[in-house]
Design brief:
It is a single chain. By secondary structure, the protein is an alpha/beta fold. The protein folds into 3 domains: about 55 residues, lambda repressor-like DNA-binding domains (434 Repressor (Amino-terminal Domain), Orthogonal Bundle); about 130 residues, 3-Layer(aba) Sandwich (Rossmann fold); about 150 residues, Response regulator (Rossmann fold), CATH 3.40.50. The chain has 12 helices and 12 strands. The protein is elongated and about 75 Å long. About 45% of the residues are buried.
Length: about 350
Protein backbone atom coordinates (compact mmCIF):
# COMPACT_ATOMS: atom_id res chain seq x y z
CA UNK A 1 0.00 0.00 0.00
CA UNK A 2 2.82 2.41 0.93
CA UNK A 3 4.57 1.70 -2.37
CA UNK A 4 1.38 2.38 -4.31
CA UNK A 5 0.84 5.68 -2.49
CA UNK A 6 4.41 6.73 -3.22
CA UNK A 7 4.19 5.85 -6.94
CA UNK A 8 0.84 7.57 -7.43
CA UNK A 9 1.98 10.64 -5.49
CA UNK A 10 5.13 10.93 -7.59
CA UNK A 11 3.27 10.56 -10.88
CA UNK A 12 0.54 13.04 -9.90
CA UNK A 13 2.99 15.50 -8.35
CA UNK A 14 1.21 15.62 -4.99
CA UNK A 15 1.90 14.36 -1.48
CA UNK A 16 1.14 10.84 -0.29
CA UNK A 17 -1.27 12.34 2.22
CA UNK A 18 -3.23 13.94 -0.63
CA UNK A 19 -3.40 10.61 -2.46
CA UNK A 20 -4.69 8.96 0.71
CA UNK A 21 -7.37 11.64 1.15
CA UNK A 22 -8.55 11.14 -2.43
CA UNK A 23 -8.68 7.35 -2.14
CA UNK A 24 -10.61 7.61 1.11
CA UNK A 25 -12.88 10.37 -0.25
CA UNK A 26 -11.94 12.83 2.47
CA UNK A 27 -12.99 16.45 2.02
CA UNK A 28 -10.62 19.34 1.39
CA UNK A 29 -9.08 18.19 -1.92
CA UNK A 30 -9.63 20.32 -5.04
CA UNK A 31 -11.40 18.69 -7.97
CA UNK A 32 -8.43 19.21 -10.26
CA UNK A 33 -6.14 17.48 -7.77
CA UNK A 34 -8.57 14.58 -7.46
CA UNK A 35 -8.46 14.14 -11.23
CA UNK A 36 -4.65 14.12 -11.19
CA UNK A 37 -4.63 11.34 -8.61
CA UNK A 38 -7.30 9.27 -10.37
CA UNK A 39 -5.51 9.62 -13.72
CA UNK A 40 -2.27 8.50 -12.08
CA UNK A 41 -4.04 5.39 -10.77
CA UNK A 42 -5.30 4.58 -14.27
CA UNK A 43 -2.01 5.13 -16.05
CA UNK A 44 -0.01 3.15 -13.48
CA UNK A 45 -2.44 0.25 -13.70
CA UNK A 46 -3.89 0.40 -10.18
CA UNK A 47 -7.56 -0.32 -9.57
CA UNK A 48 -9.61 2.56 -8.27
CA UNK A 49 -11.63 2.08 -5.11
CA UNK A 50 -15.07 0.76 -6.00
CA UNK A 51 -16.81 4.01 -5.07
CA UNK A 52 -14.60 5.95 -7.50
CA UNK A 53 -14.86 3.73 -10.55
CA UNK A 54 -17.83 5.61 -11.90
CA UNK A 55 -15.62 8.70 -12.13
CA UNK A 56 -12.93 7.10 -14.23
CA UNK A 57 -10.74 9.64 -15.98
CA UNK A 58 -11.01 9.80 -19.73
CA UNK A 59 -8.14 7.78 -21.22
CA UNK A 60 -7.19 7.17 -24.86
CA UNK A 61 -4.78 4.44 -25.93
CA UNK A 62 -2.05 5.43 -28.39
CA UNK A 63 -0.43 2.31 -29.87
CA UNK A 64 2.84 2.73 -31.82
CA UNK A 65 5.14 0.15 -33.40
CA UNK A 66 8.37 1.65 -32.02
CA UNK A 67 10.07 4.78 -30.75
CA UNK A 68 13.45 4.41 -32.50
CA UNK A 69 12.08 5.98 -35.67
CA UNK A 70 11.74 9.68 -34.73
CA UNK A 71 8.51 10.03 -36.71
CA UNK A 72 6.56 8.05 -34.10
CA UNK A 73 7.55 10.12 -31.03
CA UNK A 74 6.79 13.23 -33.07
CA UNK A 75 3.35 11.88 -33.93
CA UNK A 76 2.77 10.89 -30.29
CA UNK A 77 3.58 14.44 -29.18
CA UNK A 78 1.01 15.91 -31.56
CA UNK A 79 -1.68 13.44 -30.46
CA UNK A 80 -0.92 13.83 -26.75
CA UNK A 81 -1.08 17.63 -26.96
CA UNK A 82 -4.34 17.55 -28.91
CA UNK A 83 -5.89 15.02 -26.51
CA UNK A 84 -4.89 17.10 -23.49
CA UNK A 85 -6.68 20.12 -24.94
CA UNK A 86 -9.79 17.94 -25.19
CA UNK A 87 -9.51 16.79 -21.58
CA UNK A 88 -8.20 13.28 -22.33
CA UNK A 89 -5.07 11.53 -21.12
CA UNK A 90 -3.04 9.39 -23.57
CA UNK A 91 -1.82 5.93 -22.56
CA UNK A 92 1.26 5.27 -24.72
CA UNK A 93 1.79 1.66 -25.79
CA UNK A 94 4.89 0.74 -27.82
CA UNK A 95 5.35 -2.73 -29.27
CA UNK A 96 8.68 -4.52 -28.89
CA UNK A 97 10.03 -7.54 -30.77
CA UNK A 98 10.45 -9.61 -27.61
CA UNK A 99 7.96 -7.91 -25.31
CA UNK A 100 4.31 -6.97 -25.19
CA UNK A 101 2.41 -7.48 -28.43
CA UNK A 102 -0.17 -5.20 -29.94
CA UNK A 103 -2.89 -7.67 -28.92
CA UNK A 104 -1.58 -7.66 -25.33
CA UNK A 105 -1.80 -3.89 -25.24
CA UNK A 106 -5.38 -4.04 -26.50
CA UNK A 107 -6.27 -6.35 -23.60
CA UNK A 108 -4.65 -3.93 -21.16
CA UNK A 109 -6.43 -0.92 -22.63
CA UNK A 110 -9.78 -2.67 -22.45
CA UNK A 111 -9.15 -3.50 -18.78
CA UNK A 112 -8.50 0.19 -18.16
CA UNK A 113 -11.79 1.05 -19.85
CA UNK A 114 -10.24 3.52 -22.28
CA UNK A 115 -12.57 5.77 -24.22
CA UNK A 116 -10.89 4.90 -27.53
CA UNK A 117 -7.67 3.88 -29.26
CA UNK A 118 -5.50 5.49 -31.94
CA UNK A 119 -3.16 3.11 -33.78
CA UNK A 120 -0.25 4.29 -35.90
CA UNK A 121 1.77 1.92 -38.08
CA UNK A 122 -0.06 -1.07 -36.62
CA UNK A 123 -0.33 -4.69 -37.67
CA UNK A 124 -3.38 -3.79 -39.78
CA UNK A 125 -0.89 -2.64 -42.44
CA UNK A 126 0.43 -6.19 -43.00
CA UNK A 127 -1.49 -9.06 -44.57
CA UNK A 128 0.39 -11.77 -42.68
CA UNK A 129 -0.07 -10.19 -39.23
CA UNK A 130 -2.73 -11.14 -36.70
CA UNK A 131 -5.81 -8.91 -37.03
CA UNK A 132 -8.00 -10.65 -34.45
CA UNK A 133 -7.67 -7.91 -31.82
CA UNK A 134 -9.03 -5.33 -34.27
CA UNK A 135 -12.06 -7.50 -34.89
CA UNK A 136 -12.53 -7.76 -31.12
CA UNK A 137 -12.41 -3.98 -30.77
CA UNK A 138 -14.95 -3.56 -33.53
CA UNK A 139 -17.21 -6.11 -31.85
CA UNK A 140 -17.11 -4.10 -28.63
CA UNK A 141 -17.96 -0.91 -30.47
CA UNK A 142 -14.94 0.92 -29.05
CA UNK A 143 -13.98 4.10 -30.96
CA UNK A 144 -10.81 3.43 -32.98
CA UNK A 145 -8.78 5.34 -35.58
CA UNK A 146 -6.13 3.73 -37.79
CA UNK A 147 -3.29 5.96 -39.03
CA UNK A 148 -1.74 4.93 -42.35
CA UNK A 149 -2.94 2.32 -44.74
CA UNK A 150 -4.71 -0.85 -43.61
CA UNK A 151 -4.68 -4.19 -45.43
CA UNK A 152 -8.40 -4.74 -44.96
CA UNK A 153 -11.30 -2.43 -44.39
CA UNK A 154 -11.76 -3.27 -40.72
CA UNK A 155 -14.66 -0.89 -40.29
CA UNK A 156 -12.63 1.86 -38.61
CA UNK A 157 -11.87 5.40 -39.83
CA UNK A 158 -8.49 5.55 -41.59
CA UNK A 159 -6.12 8.48 -41.96
CA UNK A 160 -3.21 8.05 -44.34
CA UNK A 161 -0.47 9.82 -46.23
CA UNK A 162 -1.03 9.72 -50.00
CA UNK A 163 1.72 7.24 -50.97
CA UNK A 164 1.07 7.69 -54.67
CA UNK A 165 1.67 11.42 -54.45
CA UNK A 166 4.81 10.85 -52.37
CA UNK A 167 6.35 8.62 -55.04
CA UNK A 168 5.28 10.92 -57.87
CA UNK A 169 7.01 13.88 -56.23
CA UNK A 170 10.20 11.92 -55.51
CA UNK A 171 10.32 10.26 -58.94
CA UNK A 172 9.68 13.55 -60.78
CA UNK A 173 12.44 15.24 -58.80
CA UNK A 174 14.99 12.57 -59.72
CA UNK A 175 13.97 12.61 -63.39
CA UNK A 176 14.38 16.41 -63.44
CA UNK A 177 17.98 15.85 -62.29
CA UNK A 178 18.65 13.52 -65.20
CA UNK A 179 18.36 10.16 -63.42
CA UNK A 180 17.19 7.26 -65.57
CA UNK A 181 18.23 4.38 -63.33
CA UNK A 182 15.80 5.06 -60.47
CA UNK A 183 15.24 2.40 -57.83
CA UNK A 184 13.09 1.89 -54.76
CA UNK A 185 13.81 0.41 -51.33
CA UNK A 186 10.55 -0.72 -49.78
CA UNK A 187 9.26 -2.55 -46.73
CA UNK A 188 7.92 -6.15 -46.75
CA UNK A 189 5.79 -7.33 -49.66
CA UNK A 190 2.62 -7.52 -47.51
CA UNK A 191 3.12 -3.99 -46.11
CA UNK A 192 0.29 -1.91 -47.58
CA UNK A 193 2.02 1.53 -47.72
CA UNK A 194 5.00 -0.12 -49.47
CA UNK A 195 2.66 -1.88 -51.90
CA UNK A 196 1.03 1.43 -52.76
CA UNK A 197 4.40 3.07 -53.30
CA UNK A 198 5.45 0.19 -55.57
CA UNK A 199 2.29 0.46 -57.66
CA UNK A 200 2.88 4.19 -58.19
CA UNK A 201 6.55 3.58 -59.03
CA UNK A 202 5.72 0.96 -61.64
CA UNK A 203 3.17 3.22 -63.34
CA UNK A 204 5.67 6.08 -63.48
CA UNK A 205 8.45 3.81 -64.74
CA UNK A 206 6.22 2.53 -67.53
CA UNK A 207 5.23 6.07 -68.51
CA UNK A 208 8.83 7.32 -68.47
CA UNK A 209 10.36 4.22 -70.05
CA UNK A 210 12.66 3.55 -67.09
CA UNK A 211 13.48 0.22 -65.43
CA UNK A 212 10.52 -0.79 -63.26
CA UNK A 213 12.42 -3.73 -61.73
CA UNK A 214 14.99 -1.75 -59.75
CA UNK A 215 13.19 -2.59 -56.51
CA UNK A 216 14.45 -4.18 -53.31
CA UNK A 217 12.86 -4.85 -49.93
CA UNK A 218 13.99 -4.71 -46.34
CA UNK A 219 12.71 -4.26 -42.80
CA UNK A 220 12.57 -0.75 -41.43
CA UNK A 221 16.09 -0.43 -40.07
CA UNK A 222 19.30 1.28 -41.12
CA UNK A 223 21.19 -2.01 -41.40
CA UNK A 224 18.57 -3.61 -43.61
CA UNK A 225 18.35 -0.47 -45.73
CA UNK A 226 22.10 -0.55 -46.20
CA UNK A 227 21.98 -4.13 -47.51
CA UNK A 228 19.10 -3.38 -49.90
CA UNK A 229 20.78 -0.19 -51.09
CA UNK A 230 24.02 -2.03 -51.80
CA UNK A 231 22.20 -4.55 -53.97
CA UNK A 232 20.49 -1.83 -56.03
CA UNK A 233 23.67 0.19 -56.41
CA UNK A 234 25.43 -2.87 -57.79
CA UNK A 235 22.62 -3.14 -60.34
CA UNK A 236 23.39 0.39 -61.54
CA UNK A 237 20.81 2.54 -59.73
CA UNK A 238 21.77 6.23 -59.60
CA UNK A 239 18.74 7.53 -57.71
CA UNK A 240 17.00 5.71 -54.85
CA UNK A 241 13.60 6.40 -53.29
CA UNK A 242 13.23 4.88 -49.82
CA UNK A 243 10.17 3.94 -47.76
CA UNK A 244 11.50 5.70 -44.64
CA UNK A 245 14.21 8.09 -43.55
CA UNK A 246 15.88 5.36 -41.49
CA UNK A 247 16.16 3.16 -44.60
CA UNK A 248 17.49 6.13 -46.59
CA UNK A 249 20.28 6.70 -44.07
CA UNK A 250 21.25 3.04 -44.52
CA UNK A 251 21.34 3.57 -48.28
CA UNK A 252 23.62 6.61 -47.88
CA UNK A 253 25.96 4.44 -45.82
CA UNK A 254 25.87 1.73 -48.50
CA UNK A 255 26.74 4.24 -51.21
CA UNK A 256 29.80 5.37 -49.32
CA UNK A 257 30.90 1.82 -48.61
CA UNK A 258 30.64 1.15 -52.37
CA UNK A 259 32.86 4.13 -53.13
CA UNK A 260 30.15 6.55 -54.25
CA UNK A 261 29.59 10.14 -53.15
CA UNK A 262 26.12 11.39 -52.21
CA UNK A 263 24.83 13.29 -54.14
CA UNK A 264 27.68 13.58 -56.68
CA UNK A 265 27.29 9.95 -57.79
CA UNK A 266 24.08 8.73 -56.14
CA UNK A 267 20.95 10.58 -55.08
CA UNK A 268 18.88 9.35 -52.12
CA UNK A 269 15.35 10.34 -51.05
CA UNK A 270 13.74 9.34 -47.76
CA UNK A 271 10.16 9.35 -46.51
CA UNK A 272 8.78 10.92 -43.28
CA UNK A 273 11.01 13.99 -42.72
CA UNK A 274 11.59 12.82 -39.18
CA UNK A 275 13.58 14.86 -36.66
CA UNK A 276 17.20 15.74 -37.46
CA UNK A 277 17.03 14.83 -41.17
CA UNK A 278 18.18 18.38 -41.91
CA UNK A 279 21.25 17.68 -39.76
CA UNK A 280 22.48 14.45 -41.38
CA UNK A 281 25.51 14.28 -43.68
CA UNK A 282 24.38 15.21 -46.24
CA UNK A 283 21.06 16.71 -45.15
CA UNK A 284 18.43 14.30 -46.45
CA UNK A 285 15.99 15.07 -49.24
CA UNK A 286 12.76 13.43 -48.11
CA UNK A 287 8.99 13.37 -48.51
CA UNK A 288 7.43 14.95 -45.45
CA UNK A 289 4.41 13.30 -43.86
CA UNK A 290 2.00 15.98 -42.54
CA UNK A 291 1.97 14.46 -39.06
CA UNK A 292 0.56 17.53 -37.31
CA UNK A 293 -2.49 17.65 -39.54
CA UNK A 294 -2.87 13.87 -39.41
CA UNK A 295 -2.53 13.76 -35.63
CA UNK A 296 -5.11 16.47 -35.10
CA UNK A 297 -7.46 14.79 -37.57
CA UNK A 298 -7.05 11.43 -35.82
CA UNK A 299 -7.99 12.96 -32.47
CA UNK A 300 -10.94 14.89 -33.94
CA UNK A 301 -12.22 11.74 -35.62
CA UNK A 302 -11.90 9.77 -32.37
CA UNK A 303 -13.68 12.50 -30.40
CA UNK A 304 -16.58 12.44 -32.85
CA UNK A 305 -16.92 8.69 -32.33
CA UNK A 306 -16.75 9.06 -28.55
CA UNK A 307 -19.42 11.76 -28.73
CA UNK A 308 -21.70 9.50 -30.74
CA UNK A 309 -21.46 11.43 -34.01
CA UNK A 310 -21.53 9.43 -37.25
CA UNK A 311 -18.04 8.97 -38.69
CA UNK A 312 -17.18 7.77 -42.19
CA UNK A 313 -14.83 4.82 -42.53
CA UNK A 314 -13.68 6.08 -45.93
CA UNK A 315 -9.92 6.62 -45.92
CA UNK A 316 -8.75 10.23 -45.63
CA UNK A 317 -5.60 10.88 -47.68
CA UNK A 318 -3.25 13.67 -46.64
CA UNK A 319 -0.91 15.30 -49.16
CA UNK A 320 2.82 14.90 -48.45
CA UNK A 321 5.48 17.44 -49.41
CA UNK A 322 8.87 16.92 -51.02
CA UNK A 323 11.59 18.64 -48.99
CA UNK A 324 14.69 19.07 -51.15
CA UNK A 325 18.01 19.08 -49.33
CA UNK A 326 21.57 18.04 -50.21
CA UNK A 327 21.23 14.26 -50.72
CA UNK A 328 19.96 14.68 -54.30
CA UNK A 329 21.70 16.21 -57.29
CA UNK A 330 22.23 15.86 -61.04
CA UNK A 331 23.19 12.39 -62.15
CA UNK A 332 26.97 12.05 -61.85
CA UNK A 333 29.03 11.33 -64.97
CA UNK A 334 30.91 8.40 -63.40
CA UNK A 335 27.74 6.82 -62.05
CA UNK A 336 25.91 7.37 -65.33
CA UNK A 337 28.72 5.70 -67.23
CA UNK A 338 28.68 2.71 -64.89
CA UNK A 339 24.91 2.43 -65.07
CA UNK A 340 24.95 2.56 -68.85
CA UNK A 341 27.57 -0.17 -69.03
CA UNK A 342 25.87 -2.31 -66.38
CA UNK A 343 29.02 -2.27 -64.25
CA UNK A 344 28.88 -1.98 -60.41
Amino acid sequence: MARRLAEVAKYAGVSEATVSRVLNQKPGVAKATQELVLTALDVLGYERPTQLRGERARLVGLVLPELQNPIFPAFAEVVADTLAKRGFTPVLCTRTSAGISEADYVDMLLEHQVSGVIFSGGQYAQEAADHEHYIRLRGRGLPVVLVNAAYDDLGFPRISTDDRSAVEQAFTHLRSLGHERIGMVLGPADHVPSARKLAAFQVLSAEQGTDRDLVDRCVFSMESGQAAGRRLLRRGATGLICASDIIALGVVRAARREGYEVPDDVSVIGFDDSALMSCTDPPLTTVRQPIEAMGRSAVATLMNQIGGAPVSTEELLFEPELVVRASTGPVGSITALRAASGQP
